[in-house]
Amino acid sequence: MTFHLLAVDDEADFRASLAMLFELEGFKVTLASHGQEALSLFDAGLQPHVVLLDQRMPGLTGTEVLQRLRKKGRSTPAILVSATLDADKLAAEYGFEGYVRKPCGLDELVQTVRRLLPESAEGT
Amino acid sequence: MRFYQHAPQPDLNQVRAAWRQFVERGNEEPLPVRPHILRAWARSARAGCNPLLPRADVLTAPDTVALLHQEKHLIDIATPFMIALSRAAAGERHAAMLADGTGRLLKVIGDQETVADENFPRAGSLLSEAAAGANGVGTTLAEGGYVDLVGPEHFIEGFHAYTCQGAPLVGPSNVPIGVLSTSVRRLETATKLRDILFCASESAECELLSSWLSESLLPKRALEAALEALRQDVVQRIAMARLQLELAAKQIAAGADATTTVRAAQQLSQKFRRQAAMWRNLVGDEPSSPEPIALGDLMQDFVELLETEARVASVKLVWVRDDQFFVLDDIRALSQRLLERFLSAMHIAAPQSDIGITLARSSNQAVITLSAVSQSGEALPYTCSAPILK
User: Fold this and answer.
1) Which of A36, B36, B116, B309 has the fewest C-beta atoms lying within 10 Å of its C-beta?
2) pLDDT per residue over A9-29, tens digit each?
3) Nearest to B277 by CA among B210, B224, B341
4) Using omega within 30 degrees of 0 as the cis cutoff, is the peptide bond preceding A103 cis?
5) CB atoms within 10 A of CB A64
6) Which positions in chain B touch A104 (Cβ < 8 Å)?
7) pTM surpassing 0.90?
């Protein structure tokens, strides 16, 4: 089964690295450069298994994107990716299913994502 | 590149004969070995190292546990880069090693056969030149830069089967605090790992600096939200460098050309270093002496540092680099004044507008002007001046 990841980050290089690394891990990866784009993708029917959300982005922050997703009834597991020192508290406060503090390694990212994957899932 | 020594690879038969001659008769006549090797052999001999040793000395188990506890921070930071090195060497006999600033090994990651070899160094082994002769750890520390040693270039016979290379790890206080090293059986493998070793040591140094910025400076001064946001932007650079490095390791392991990825990681690391230095100036509260400052370079660094902040604020910093000129000022005070002006301009500027940055000089003063336009259409200049260096 191919798992589908949505990565939302305003840094183009970071997005590109995430895409290459997760594709090497066998994931299908969709990228969004800001929160509004991510919400539009969901509205268009995207159903990723996990979403990685950067916190500091133009327009909506990662926490704001998550709040809007939950209001729309989308329960896709979300991981906060942030360089803030209290990423753990922020993630808990806003109901993220996981968090990764930058700088982070591939193993940490992949393990955090894999922990949230369903044993058997179908996505688009 | 910072560590690279442009030395041709040695003729191993010549080196083996030279080693035997050096061990038996000393350095009586010119020997056909590379200069850094000859220096290392001379240091090893002067320190009384026994060239016929089969292996390095190792600490007792309790002392090793105490050492690993003491160096936990360095080990935690370096481990992901050792894993990346090990990944890049996949399928080959290899070891990625971390040592402290005295040459004491802290961690070894490698293939099962190498790590299980009882003669191979392990955590607690002392690889200083005085104890273990010329080798990829001790010689790196003694030379203060990257070195490689092929087979009989090692001083002790027990290491002649290996090709080793090492790069020093310099801490946030600019003092060498360790070595990242690889040990392999084939010269081709060492060559394949060289660029990623440079990159890994650079990235590990940046992460040490990043950790120091976060942990050591925070208690000294309560950070304003803007400074914390900037710190996160700076950390983003090293986060990207690390992902690029891990990607390069995978590419190398797959036999692909990772040159572009390694270069990208190095550029991001270097950008991180510049921005980390700027951030330290912005949060530092102890006065420093006036010094010559290249104003064009400083403005360029500011524009790069504030790139994300500007994007989040939906404004564009427009800076056309012109003449370079120097001012004489306290770099911390000038940086802090400039940041205040930049933040004010970005706060007032209308979304999607440009903030123009210009430099002008009179006989005594340089004036930096940030031209913002507010949402009501009002043009608002923010200026900052500094004395011209004469």
Assistant:
1) B116
2) 998 888 998 998 899 899 999
3) B210
4) yes
5) 17
6) 239, 242
7) no
| pLDDT tens digit sequence for B218-237 | 544 545 778 888 888 888 88
Q: How many CB atoms lie under 10 A from the CB of residue B2? A: 12
User: Which amino acid is present at B277?
Assistant: A
Cβ of B236 and A84 within 8 Å?
A: no
Q: Determine the residue type at B367.
A: V
Report the relative pairing of strands A78-82 and A98-101 from DSSP bridges.
parallel
Q: Is A13 on the interface with B (CB under 8 A)?
A: yes
Give the tokens for residue A47. Answer: 């159903």
Burial letters for A102-113: b for 16+ Cβ neighbours within 10 Å, e otherwise? Answer: bbbbbeebbebb
- Two structure tokens written together for B33: 């070995």
Count CB neighbours of B136 within 10 A.
Answer: 30
Quote ipTM for the complex: 0.84
* Nearest one of B52, B77, B265 to B160, comparing CA atoms: B52
By the 8 A CB rule, do A89 and A15 touch?
A: no
**Residues 73 through 102 of chain A touching chain B, CB cutoff 8 Å:** 82-85, 102
- B325 close to B366: Cβ distance less than 8 angstroms: yes
Tokens of B341: 């002006």
Handedness of CA A25, A27, A30, A33 (dihedral sign): negative
Q: How far off is chain A from B202, nearest CA to CA, in Å?
A: 14
pLDDT > 90? residue B11: no
Assign residue B168 a region (left: φ > 0; alpha: ψ between -120 and 50; beta: otherwise).
beta
Chain B residues touching A13 at Cβ < 8 A: 240, 244, 264, 268
* DSSP structure class, residue B153: G
What crossing angle do the helices spanning B295-305 and B259-283 adopt, rounded to 10°? 100
Question: Closest Cα to residue A58, out of B283, B370, B318, B229?
Answer: B229
* Chain A, chain B: beta-carbon pairs less than 8 Å apart: 71
Both structure tokens of B314: 């939906």
CB contact under 8 A, A83 and B312: no
Q: Dihedral angle at the C-alpha atoms of B216, B221, B222, B223, nearest 10 degrees? A: -80
Paired tokens of A58: 């133009």
Q: Is A107 on the interface with B (CB under 8 A)?
A: yes
Strand, coil or helix: B275? helix
Q: Read off the tokens for A5.
A: 């990841």
| Cβ separation A21–B242 shorter than 8 A | no
Cβ A17–B218 below 8 Å, yes or no?
no
Tell how many helices (H) and how many strands (E) occur in chain A. 5, 5
Please answer whether residues B373 and B364 qualify as being in contact, where contact means their C-beta atoms are separated by less than 8 angstroms: no
CA distances from B353 to B190, B233, B303, B309, B376 (A): 52, 22, 15, 14, 12
How confident is the model over B49-84, as pLDDT tens digits?
999 888 888 888 989 999 999 999 999 999 999 999
Cβ atoms of B4 and B146 closer than 8 Å: yes
